[in-house]
Specification:
heterodimer; A: mainly alpha; globular; B: six-stranded mixed beta sheet; 21 helices; 24 strands
């Protein structure tokens, strides 16, 4: 059995290894955010007389795929990707996810924002794991200035990279899953798959009223600011924040009662009416089968590697 | 002294659509909201339900649509009590428009929301969608059907909420403050939409001019009881009744000498054309030059703003929704930072200065609930003073002074959440006044107030000695409180002129959504009614008709004494105070069929 291989590096190269990569990653994240915000300048007002997905030429295969098949297939495929153990199949999974993005004509800015959302979490793996994975026989460890206790394990880096690749591949799938159908359709699909209907109703209403509560909170916060409130670490701030949250809760609670009254006044009796009918076609099942096959092949490829 | 003729008795309706008998309702916390309500509403009636805040109007309309069940008494709709299956069916025929459209727009898109009701009525999906589309077309939202409700403007939300009801083709529409927070142009759109509804309509509103245009019958409520039920004309023509119920809005209809004097005697406001500041050496309190603001999403909200506000100025800022008024206020308050020059009392408003602006600039929000979050009135007013670093004794003194300025003495321990809309507005004003701002900004101060509340607020604001910036669609308040008007349109100030000049320029009014033709029309009609009285007083006539003296029948001029009601039309410039109609010795009006009156010559 091979021993652990130590590669010595001088001390002055430590900052290069420890500081430069995270700094580059941070700079990339900031630049991408700025780019996306700059590109999201309001252009022409969209035509709201047609559904947004159709307006964006959303006639892709994924838009037409039955939502139940889509949910089951993509979630099952995600579990398969999560089960991969080697970097090669994980990178292949990223390529397949990108292919799905192209087919679904997903918005690049939205995809990038999703990736940026997990960037902090996965970069933590990339930074920490190489230093914390215990060295085994055959590992290559880069040691700075004889500090064997602070070795950079290349196997740890490979492991972190594999986890990162899998996370990226799964994250890229979320856009085709969630933005190729309106939220109510996706929730209807979930309820047809066995999720309690009330959960779907709650999610839908929460999505709608989250915006309302956000606006109320913003106005109330402005109301406090114009009377000089600034957050400090003292009891007065705590009291003010508690009052603010309490009032927001009371207003939200009163609004939910009024919303319920409004629903009852228009005939609601506990079940939201379904606005559309889901129809399953043979093509939907064939597409699901094909994609699952791809996932199985990926796992076989991974196990053989 | 004469007395007004007796008002008409409530109409006797043989087969009413709604029949309410001895209805009382008590909320779970013990509050008696309705007492012994007796009301009949016929099919096709257009009823205005009026009264001060807290009189029970909203509770009554919730009873009418079955959202609340009576504690005592009964209520029937189409001959049956609102319970069981009949209640379920009735809810699909009775539409209730809530005051806040966000309460009833719960669909993912506008179309989904409008189709909700028809789907519950049992319509097939396609039919429900079709009904929803037609309704949205009626309210001019057919180009926004796939938009999410939270992206709509307030006026659009109101119309979308109405569409959700119209899609159900209701027999009855119950409206709770349908025009609250709408600008005059949107009010007019709403009025036209409601006039086009051919079913039964019950409308709760403080806006009597709007109600006059829409309704023919008025039910006046007070303390949970129906005080009066008569024709709309009878309500608006009787100032004494309006005043007794806190509904007298006539102060808006009369341009009196005191209003003009208040404006004329006020400080001279500088305008673009007669800028006093640069030449006279009088420093401006606020100076903005070439000021721009762009939101993070790229929306250019303010463009090349140039303003100068001197100490003591009273300025109105007007403009259609989306003109940039709110953004301008946010920048003035230091909540937002734009680009360009912004000087406050000669100092540039940069980072540190911006954070301290709150000490000198105060604002009362359109919805006063947004700035009230403490558990008591006392704590609410003390909040800002504590941030300013005042001592406890100073705070106590200032609280008393502030409550006195807004007529809320004795309210220290009250809970703001439980106060009426007018009281909350005055409390929000007190919170700001306690901090003695140099510049006071009022954003739509009359929103949600009943006429008595408006009159009280106007009186308070007139007495204030402070530099004032008023954002309002309320032309009366603009005229009464300001001498200079800034007109905003698409992020720019397009006019800076004396208020009187603005009010006379119809083009500017139309441009800024302030077209108030129906208000003018309604106000003129009401003013005419208020000066058309029905009097009953003894008077004498000189007339000639056949009559009998014993066995002799002849005809000649003779005088008679009468006492009966008759209508007199006056024109009274100025306040409608009690006036004395001394009966002339002889009246000259006609008395048809008087000669056949058997009691004429006993």
């Amino acid at each position: 059995m091979a021993d652990v291989i130590h590669i010595q590096m001088p001390l002055w190269q430590l900052p290069l290894m420890v500081v430069v990569p995270p700094a580059m990653l941070l700079a990339l994240v900031v630049w991408l955010r700025h780019l996306i915000l700059a590109r999201s300048m309001p252009g022409e007002e969209p035509d709201w007389s047609v559904p947004p997905l159709e307006a964006d030429d959303g006639g892709s295969l994924l838009h037409r795929w039955d939502v139940r098949c889509k949910i089951v297939t993509i979630l099952a495929y995600s579990f398969m990707v999560a089960a991969l153990q080697h970097i090669g199949p994980a990178l292949a999974a990223i390529v397949l996810s990108c292919l799905l993005l192209v087919v679904s004509r997903a918005s690049l800015s939205r995809v990038t924002m999703r990736l940026l959302a997990i960037a902090g979490f996965v970069s933590m793996f990339l930074v920490v794991m190489p230093f914390t994975v215990p060295a085994r026989d055959g590992d290559t460890v880069v040691v700075i200035n004889q500090m064997t206790w602070f070795g950079f394990n290349m196997r740890g880096l490979l492991l972190a990279a594999t986890i990162t690749a899998k996370a990226v591949a799964i994250t890229l799938l979320m856009e085709p899953l969630l933005s190729t159908a309106p939220l109510p359709v996706t929730l209807l699909g979930l309820s047809r798959l066995g999720a309690p209907e009330i959960i779907g109703q709650m999610v839908l209403l929460s999505y709608r009223y989250l915006h309302v509560f956000r606006h109320e909170a913003r106005r109330m916060s402005a109301g406090m600011q114009v009377r000089g409130f600034r957050k400090r670490t003292d009891i007065a701030t705590l009291r003010a924040v508690a009052n603010f949250l309490g009032m927001l809760f009371v207003r939200s609670f009163e609004r939910t009662e009024r919303v319920f009254d409004a629903m009852r006044a228009r005939g609601y009796k506990g079940k939201m009416p379904e606005q559309l009918e889901l129809k399953l076609h043979a093509a939907d099942i064939i597409a699901a089968g094909l994609w699952m096959t791809v996932g199985i092949v990926l796992i076989i490829f991974d196990r053989l590697g | 002294m004469h007395e007004l003729a007796h008002t008409a008795a409530p109409p006797d309706i043989p087969s009413p659509l709604f029949r309410v008998r001895d209805l009382s309702y008590r909320y779970a916390n013990g509050t008696v909201a309705l007492s012994d309500i007796h009301l009949d509403i016929a099919a096709g009636d257009r009823v205005a339900l009026v009264g001060q805040n807290g009189s029970g109007k909203t509770t009554l309309i919730k009873q009418l649509c079955g959202l609340l069940a009576p504690s005592r008494g009964n209520l029937s709709y189409r001959g049956q009590f609102l319970e069981g299956d009949h209640l379920d069916r009735s809810r699909l025929e009775i539409g209730l428009l809530f005051q806040d459209p966000d309460d009833q727009l719960f669909g993912h898109t506008v179309l989904d929301d409008a189709a909700f009701g028809p789907l519950n009525q049992g319509l097939a999906r396609e039919m429900a969608q079709q009904a929803a589309r037609l309704a949205l077309q009626r309210v001019f939202l057919d180009d926004k059907i796939y938009k999410a409700p939270h992206h709509l403007s307030f006026g659009q939300k109101k119309r979308a909420a109405l569409a959700g009801l119209l899609a159900m083709q209701p027999r009855v529409l119950l409206l709770d403050e349908p025009t609250a927070n709408l600008d005059p142009r949107q009010e007019e759109v709403f009025l036209d939409l409601l006039k086009g509804f051919d079913g039964t309509l019950v409308c709760v509103s403080h806006d009597l001019v709007f109600l006059y245009e829409l309704c023919r019958r008025a039910v006046v409520m007070e303390n949970g009881r129906i005080e009066h039920d008569y024709a709309m004309d009878d309500l608006v023509s009787q100032r004494e009744e309006l005043r007794a119920h806190g509904l007298d809005f006539s102060f808006r209809l009369v341009v009196n000498a005191s209003t003009e004097a208040a404006v004329a005697d006020g400080p001279t406001c500088a305008t673009k054309d007669n800028d006093l500041h640069s030449d006279s050496g009088v420093a401006s309190m606020v100076d903005m030059h070439d000021y721009n603001f762009r939101y993070p999403d790229g929306t250019q909200a303010l463009k090349h703003i140039d303003i100068a506000i001197a100490s003591g100025d009273r300025i109105a800022v007007v403009g259609e929704n989306g003109a940039g008024k709110t953004t301008l206020l946010a920048c003035l308050l230091g909540l937002q930072q734009g680009e360009g020059t912004y000087l406050f009392e000669g100092d540039p408003v940069k980072r540190k200065k911006r954070k301290e602006l709150w000490r000198k600039v105060g604002m009362v929000f359109q919805d006063s609930a947004d700035q009230l979050f403490c558990p008591s009135v006392e704590e609410e007013i003390a909040f800002g003073l504590q941030q300013m670093g005042y001592s406890k004794s100073q705070i106590r003194t200032r609280i008393e002074e502030a409550l006195g300025m807004v007529n809320l003495e004795g309210f220290e321990t009250r809970v703001p959440l439980h106060m009426s809309g007018g009281e909350r507005k005055r409390l929000a004003l007190a919170c700001v006044l306690a901090m003695t701002p140099k510049l006071l900004i009022l954003d739509e101060p009359t929103a949600g107030l009943d006429p008595r509340g408006e009159e009280l607020l106007l009186a308070i604001l007139r007495e204030l000695d402070v530099t004032l910036l008023l954002v309002s669609h309320d032309i009366f308040f603009v005229r009464a409180l300001t001498c200079r008007t800034l007109v905003m349109h698409q992020g720019q100030i397009i006019e800076d002129l004396p208020t009187e000049s603005f009010l006379q320029d119809r083009r500017l009014g139309n441009l800024n959504g302030l077209a108030f033709a129906f208000r003018q029309r309604g106000g003129d009609a009401i003013r005419a009614l208020q000066h058309e009285h029905e009097h009953r007083y003894p008077h004498r006539h000189l007339h000639s008709h056949p009559h009998r003296h014993g066995e002799i029948v002849h005809e000649h001029l003779h005088e008679h004494a009468h006492e009966h009601p008759h209508r007199i039309v006056h024109s009274h410039p100025g306040d409608a105070q009690d006036h004395d109609h001394r009966p002339r010795r002889l009246q000259a009006h006609d008395h048809p069929d008087h000669g056949n009156d058997p009691d004429h010559h006993p």
